[in-house]
Amino acid sequence: MEGANNDRTIVTGPQFCSPQTLQLSMKKKNYFFGGYGYDVKDASDNLVFTIKEVLGFFSRSKVLIFDAADVPILTLKSKNFTWHSTWQAFKGDSTDKKDLIFSAKTSSMFQFTTKLDIFLASNISEQVCDFRLKANYMESKCDIFTGQSSTLIAQMNKKYTAESIFLGRDKFMVRVNSNVDHAFIVSIIVILEEITSSGQRSSHS
């Protein structure tokens, strides 16, 4: 992160910081041949991001986030062999360690509600998180804060519809505060969904 540069919260890039509060919608798409994706749109129904799961043959799948021009801006990938559920975000379509931007991990191994601690790549010690996410019991709502403070920078609400219940086409309404990197916020919500859905799959297995 470039830090609170002129009161902006920049993680992926300054171009993703809007001077106004943003209302985004994330609609999930499940593909017939496997995998899933999301379309992320603003309040005017303009496409902001496209998110696609890339299935791996000999490795775990990863998730790519593309901007409106279809340029990859972030790659999300789970980290193997960790006590906590951990995901990493890299620049562009890379998964190289040198391109790591941040890591997100569950704050404890056993928790009734999902809580994520987010550490920027520059935070080597990971003693104190740079951001944190707290979801409610059903993971239908979540709040994202800076560090251990009560400073709220974004919120997500999941909308339950016939499509989401019967077809798995979840829809999320995301409010991002002004001057907060909305690409970063969207990526954290995707990671939350990955962690909670994998937990649901394992509990049903």
Walkthrough of the structure:
The chain is mainly beta and 205 residues long. It has two helices and 14 strands; from the N terminus they run βββββββββββββαβα. It starts with a strand and ends with a helix.
Largest sheet: 12 strands, antiparallel, barrel
Arithmetic mean of pLDDT? 85
Cα separation of the termini: 38 Å
Q: What low-confidence regions span 5 or more consecutive residues with pLDDT below 50?
A: 1-5, 200-205
Instruction: Encode the helix/strand succession as letters.
Output: EEEEEEEEEEEEEHEH
Please state how the strands of the largest beta sheet are arranged side by side.
Answer: 3-4-5-6-7-8-9-10-11-12-13-14
Helix content: 10-25%
Please provide the count of β strands.
14
How much of the sequence is in beta strands? 35-45%
Category by helix and strand content: mainly beta
Shape: globular
Radius of gyration from the alpha-carbon trace, in angstroms: 16 Å
Number of separate helices: 2
